[in-house]
Amino acid sequence: MKAVIMAGGFGTRMQPLTINLPKPMVPLVNQPIMSHIIDLLKKHGISDVVMLLFHQPETIKNYFGDGSELGVRITYVTPLEDFGTAGAVKAAAPYLDERFLVISGDLLTDFDLGAVLKFHEEKQAQATITLTSVEDPLQFGVVITDQEGAITKFLEKPGWGEVFSDTINTGIYVFEPEVLDMIPEETNRDWSKDIFPHMLAEGCPLYGCRLDGYWADIGNTDAYLETCRDLFHDRVSTKLPEPNLSDGHRKIYLGTDTQVAADDLSLLEGMVVIGDNSQVLGRAQLKNCIVGRNCVIEDDVQLEDTILWDNVFVKRGCRLFGTVAGHRARLGRGVVAEEGTVIGDETNVGDEVYLRKDVKIWPRKSIESGSIVSTNLIWGDKWRKSLFEGASVRGLSNVELSPEFCAKLGAAYGSVLPRDSYVITSRDGQRSSRMLKRAFLGGLLSTGVNVRDIKQMPLPVMSYKLGTFGEVGGVHFRQFHDDPAATEILFYDAEGLEIPSGTAKAVERIFFKENFRRVHYAEPGEIRELPQLTVFYKEGFLRALDAEMLRSFAPKVVVDLNHSPAGELLPGLLTDLGCEVIELNSHVEAGRSAIAPEKTARAMEQLARIVSSLEATAGFWLDPSGEQLRMIDENGVLLSETEALGVVVSLISRCEKAGTLVLPVSAPRAMERVAHQGGLTLRTVKNDARALLEAISERGGLLTATMDGRFALPAFQGHFDGMFAVAKILEMLGRTGMTLGSLRRGLPARAYRQIQVPCSRQLKGGLMRKMSEHSVNLDASFIDGVKVCFDDDWVLVLPDQYRPVVHIVADSPDEQRAEKLLVCYKDKVETWKKELLD
Q1: Which of 78, 730, 758, 812 is 20 to 30 A from 643 via CA?
Q2: Entry pTM
Q3: Contact 92, 77 (CB under 8 A)
Q4: 132: closest CA among 161, 109, 155?
């Protein structure tokens, strides 16, 4: 007699354990679940097995081979499509010319299969369904039989009002071969939904054999852990070797070359299985645990109801309860995992991490030390739990952001855009940016989206084009400013604004599910160029300035262009406006190494010396994307970001009679006073680029700026543009007759202080609740974070949107008061953090 093992399921409900393994291959007592099924079949004299495969079939074939090592003969059948439970068995019909048994490869049971075969023979049935009683039949298909065992009714997933029996379908069947004639070839059919109801309607001899014994459908991670507990407490009979120690309260199974530091095994309780070549060091305590092969468990570890797969490393002081750790997982010192935690393969958990109840961590994740993980971390690369930080994706070039990653990202992005639409793409001068952009374009084109690739170009030029018409979005690749080894990918909408969070989430969902849109082979998108784009940009640039006044002013200006694409545009524009331009680092070199942050500081010092020695009007440093700006006054003094912001606000207040300035809520109060002195309105919004640019797009907007040196002047374009900011500042200096130095010295004297306090993401919500409660009777605003005013002083507590820190900013006319406010609220934040952790 033959048995058919159903082993083709995807195991979606059992993720993350089944991401790298088909569900029948999930280890149960250090061997695949399906091995226990084969042992059960052999026990009942069945040694001829047909395995029905579909998902990751090679993994199963490589493990079981032809079955000879297990004492069985295995035939593999892999349908070309998912034909359902009955359709898959139909695919094996050439091998099933006699009575056969069907059993699922992802369940555990000790049923007497001989009893169901005998029942089938006695009843002369065409099909016999093995039934058993369960406490909660709602999640299974209930089967109603008469006194002779003939099936009279099926109830698929019934409600309690429909439950007239607690006997359910176990997925173990005995069939006569003629049943296969009822299943169409290469058609999706299910036993319970299609074939059995048809047999019942046709009056075929269809019976149910009720058996007592252990039966568990290992359908999800909870069921997997529950099945392991049943094994620990001898609720199921399985084939295991003789224990090394069995004293009534304990059963200890030790593999080959296993080392346990406590020679008397006194620290092992209940049922403990330790695989080959594993080590349990020091005073580690294990109670009801299964440890795989080549594992290391260090001193002072406590494991209870825990399953470790192969090659797991558990460092000193860990406490794991009801936890599963997949292959090659690494747990740092002092990790605590609550009941139901599942850690995917190759995941690195940092020191002192706390994993809350039922948290699932997908494979190849890296969890920062000190984290409190209370929600699932979905499958991604090692370094991230989500793709986007705001409107950008960043990671180590060719490591975290690989060509394969970027191709997938391009396909995910294209899948949320309309077919046949256009996207504009650009990059900085780095080779890694070019490589990754090209990979990204491949994925994007595969979705039927067209590309206008402007290649190596300053970001403001792309933003300017998006502000017109023709494209539904833009993507820019550049070196990440905080890490020369990393690349940042920036996404923009049709208006040139950073994409909203909803769009980012839509791209993430498609990326992780790999549910990409794939167009017909003849319909991929195409790549076009925009050769006249720089001409278009230059014309708009020059129209937005008072060229005659600038030519008469004829300022001498030193510009450090950072070897960026802006070097091909800005010097020529300033020269056309009558400026005497001294260029530094203007040559664009594709193979040039990225500039580290410490070198940037030295470059600014050099720029300051050159400005002073040449007696220039001003000096400017542009970031490689052409957005961010730093200023040097005529005396060679580098202006801080707040001083530069104050100078630009002061210039606009002197040049414009009416209008609105938009600044982030963290901007110094000095900006408000300067604006009001000039008769302008100052509006504060969230510390977010999209919020700033949306606000300035309203009528009467004159300027918006960030606290890191990015300026947007809607007279030209409503996006951040460091190149235009340079020209506009020079124009306003000429109109006012002022210098950067005199403007800097004329700013209101106020102390502006800020610090960052470490704060895990899990504590941010509670921390802001504490801050809100504290501010109830104070003069507080809640635009972004909590800002509390005390007469002429204020303090802002603002959680960072992406990093595990909280920003505290204090502003006062008195330096000591500002420092006192900063220290006071830093202490409050630390106190609130401790309260939240208690």
Answers
A1: 758
A2: 0.61
A3: yes
A4: 109
Number of neighbours of residue 118 by Cβ within 10 angstroms: 12
Amino acid sitting at position 25: M
Tally Cβ neighbours within 10 Å of residue 178: 10
Judge if the upstream peptide bond of residue 500 is cis by omega within 30 degrees of 0: no
Q: Are 614 and 718 in contact (CB under 8 A)?
A: no
145 vs 125: CA distance, rounded Å: 14
Higher pLDDT, 806 or 55: 806
Cα separation, 472 vs 288, in Å, equals 58
What is the Cα–Cα distance from 403 to 696, expressed in whole angstroms?
37
Whether residue 768 contacts residue 796, with contact meaning beta carbons closer than 8 Å, is answered with no
Which are the contacts of 742, defined by CB distance < 8 A and separation ≥ 6?
A: none
Query: Measuring CA to CA, which residue among 579, 587, 565, 668 is closest to residue 619?
Result: 579
Element (H, E) at 38: helix 33-43
Instruction: Report the residue count for the chain.
Output: 838
Residue of 539, 583, 549 whose CA lies nearest to 724: 539
Cα distance between residue 703 and residue 718, in whole Å:
9
Average pLDDT value for residue range 196-221:
91
Between the alpha carbon of residue 355 and those of residues 26, 320, 375, the distances in Å are 23, 9, 9
Residue 587: count of CB within 10 angstroms of its CB: 11
pLDDT classification of 481: cutoffs 50, 70, 90: confident
User: In angstroms, rounded to a whole number, what is the distance separating the alpha carbons of residues 67 and 59?
Assistant: 14
Q: For the chain, how long is the longest CA-to-CA vector?
A: 110
- Please report, for residues 631, 676, 798, the alpha-carbon distance to residue 751 in angstroms, rounded to integers and kept in the order given: 20, 19, 19
Between the alpha carbon of residue 558 and those of residues 413, 561, 581, 638, 731, the distances in Å are 40, 10, 6, 13, 15
d(CA 764, CA 775): 16
Are the CB atoms for 198 and 182 separated by under 8 Å?
yes
Here the tokens at position 672 are 């408000």
The secondary structure of residue 193, as a DSSP letter, is: I
3-state class (DSSP) for residue 573 = helix
Token pair, residue 97, equals 């010319």
**Distance of alpha carbon 286 from alpha carbon 297, whole angstroms:** 10
CA-to-CA distance for 473 and 466, rounded, in angstroms? Answer: 7
Which of helix, strand or coil describes residue 654? Answer: helix
Lowest model confidence (mean pLDDT) among 171-185, 408-422, 577-591, 612-626: 577-591
pLDDT of residue 378: 63
Report helix, strand or coil for 729. Answer: helix
Phi, psi angles (nearest 5°) of residue 675: -65, -45
CA angle 523, 529, 534 (to 5 degrees): 155
Q: Which helix (H) or strand (E) holds 822?
A: helix 815-837
Calpha distance 691→482 (Å, rounded): 23
Nearest to 300 by CA among 335, 276, 325, 272: 335
Please compute Rg for the chain using Cα positions.
35
Number of H helices, E strands in the chain: 21, 49
Output the CA–CA distances (angstroms, integers) from residue 568 to 528, 591, 624, in the order listed. 21, 17, 12
**How are strands ordered across the β-sheet holding 786-790?**
751-758, 805-812, 793-799, 786-790, 779-781
Of the candidates 747, 745, 750, 744, the one whose C-alpha atom is nearest the C-alpha of residue 819 is 750
What pLDDT is attached to residue 783?
Answer: 92
- Residue whose structure tokens are 């009002």: 161
Q: List the Cα angle 273/279/285 in 5-degree steps.
A: 65
Exposed e or buried b for every residue in 52-78, given b needs 16+ CB within 10 A?
Answer: bbbbbbebbeeebeebeebebebebbb
Q: What is the three-class DSSP state of 224?
A: helix
The yes-or-no verdict on residue 590 having pLDDT over 80 is no
Count Cβ atoms below 10 Å from residue 528 Cβ, excluding itself.
12
Gap between the Cα atoms of 314 and 297, Å rounded: 5
The pair of structure tokens assigned to 570 is 């800005």
Q: What is the DSSP letter of 150?
A: B
